[in-house]
């Protein structure tokens, strides 16, 4: 008997944790945290106590109590006993938090499969943010003993990977982070297709179509498909990456002052868009140390991003009077400072992070400077995103900077998602990563319940 269980991503955006069971083989697709998972009990500085592992999560019913899945540290303060692993593998579709965040709780013996670029991005994020996604070199416990490193295995698009009775084929898709994949899982009762997150309006729509076409060919028994933008009222704008490029290019060309560009840290398509605009307009792109580290981590990868230490169109910004971390030290010789930015402000595009708006005080932007906000607009349902947006606006008003909202979503539109559903024409349809699974019509659309088995 083959079954699919959603332990996350059922009726919520993100948090995908899809368990596929085929006789004795048990594999998870993604292991993330939903954006709203903690909202009910936690806010700002009130957060689960990391030192107690999963204790707070279990006590508040935020994570499933599953034997043979979590590592010793994760369960040692809970009533769940640490037992031998009962799961064969976890496959990661891409490096976004809502697909990977809970890997740190996973038993080390269970291998984690991901794309090569995905691993490089996660490794860089771990280095530069101090956030542990998984154990890379092993972890030292409080008592000084070591936890062994996770077993990470990387794959390429089209590679067939056998795990127990399953054969899993990752196929690249276009999403707002490089190294993103969907999966075709061949079971003893037919194929299950899983989209991960995807879109058709980025720079590489042909990658998404490779996945869709392979899924059509596989005539799947079940399709697990994302539906982020499936909603009665669509709050995200339907812009393409090309539109963001041309409009941002126009803003930069018309601006007589400095241009700020704000984007999501892992959105390297957007980085490339701003990098190209900088080149086209004869400006330099000023990036953060974190971005420099990420680009260097991906050096030599097929994605083909520029080397920030050698590229004449790129400068790295170093803040003053901070205590630099070990990973920052080797980059400091290559940095420009606030005086340089102030002097050259009319000839740059500056990727400034929201958490570092204070730097504007040192720069004193000249009149007619602009800000391209290249991220989602604040969501009505999310008061903290609205508050943050107000604060951003106050900074821009204070320094007389004109704001331009230009963003292309990482997710396919509702209409495109419904077209994919029709084209793939699977026998069973399981929406995931959506607040509106009930809006998926058609034969056998299943509104999955968290933790409840769906048999093929
Ligand atoms: Zn994503």
In a nutshell, what does this entry contain?
This protein is an alpha/beta fold. It has helices spanning 55-59, 72-75, 97-100, 116-129, 205-218, 241-254, 268-281, 289-297, 338-343, 359-363, 383-398, 414-424, and strands at residues 2-8, 17-22, 25-29, 89-91, 112-115, 139-140, 146-147, 152-155, 161-163, 166-172, 181-187, 190-194, 222-226, 259-262, 284-287, 314-317, 335-336, 348-350, 370-373, 402-405, 428-432, 453-455.
Number of strands: 22
The dominant shape is globular
How many discrete structural domains? 2
* Oligomer category: single chain
Q: Hetero groups bound?
A: zinc ion
**CATH architecture classification name of the largest domain:** 4-Layer Sandwich
Main beta sheet: 7 strands, mixed
Write out the strand line-up for the largest beta sheet, numbering strands in chain order: 8-5-4-3-2-1-22
CATH topology of the largest domain: Metallo-beta-lactamase, Chain A
* CATH homologous superfamily annotation of the largest domain: Ribonuclease Z/Hydroxyacylglutathione hydrolase-like
- N/C terminus separation: 8 Å
Proportion in β-strands:
15-25%
Radius of gyration, rounded?
23 Å
The secondary structure category is: alpha/beta
The portion of residues assigned to helices is 25-40%
CATH class of the largest domain: Alpha Beta
Overall average residue pLDDT: 94
| Contiguous uncertain segments of 5+ residues | none
Secondary structure tally, helices: 12
